[in-house]
Each structure stands twice: as structure tokens, then as C-alpha cells.
Amino acid sequence: MQRAALLLLCLFAFLLGTAPARAQESGDDPALTAEIAGLDAHVFDAYNRCDLKAFSSYFSPRVEFYHDKGGVTWDRATVLSNTRKYICGKVRRELLAETLRIYPIKGFGAVEEGEHRFCEISTGACEGIAKFLMIWRKERGNWVMTRVISYGHRPMPKPGD
Known about the structure:
The protein is an alpha+beta fold.
């Protein structure tokens, strides 16, 4: 009995000692997480409604957008042109909220990573899923994306897969 109690006490002490390290590794900053998650909701609301004026305000003029299927886009104007041409009225983006992670970048901004799925507007079918990484910079009190990486595009898993 004493041995079990000692083992339990050691396990508890270990877990207490590693909790701050785990929180630090995950970038656990509730205020920053809420702020960037809010920005994500706003930018993709504009994306889904094809409000290109609002959508453009979230990108640095010199944004770099890396897409595993579409290649590299080197500026905001081209991101907007591609969105108008390939997205507006065709596709809706949905964040998979449980995958969202936010990490601070000291003196610069934040990294946002997660997964999202894409649904065809005409059918409502959500058939594609991908990972993303966004680098956000805070400039004069406003947040803008400076780098976007969209990768790992694949079909949505079927129920039971």
C-alpha cells in the first residue's frame, strides 16, 4: 500500500513539474489565441462571402502564399485575383477548430496553424481537407498575414475510415 502511495505521489509530482513546460510548448497564451482565432473567423468570413475589400485588409501587400497544389503567389494583388477567379461563389472554407494552435513570435506577431476543410457551395459537399500555417504580423496596431502555407490537401475521410 505504501509503495502504491509513493508511486502515485511521484507521478503527481512529475505531472505538476511538467505542466508549465507543456503549456509553454503549446504556445498557451489565451489572449493571443482568442485574438488570432477572431482574426481567422473574420478573414474567412470575408473569404466565404467574397468580400474582397475586407479580405484584402488582412494581408500584407508583400504576402507570400505557398500552396502545395497551386504554387507560390508573391503579393496581395495576385492572392485577391486568384480568390476572385477560383474561390468566389464556388468554395466555402470551414476551420476544424479542434486543430487550431497559436504560437507567439516575440517582437513580431504570431504563428497560426491548423486544418480546414473546403465545401462546394453548389452541392454543400465538404470533400477537401488541408493543413495551413499563417504568419501574422502586428503592424501599427493592426494584424496582417505576411506568409501563408496551405499544404497536405487531400480528400475528406469518409465516415468510418
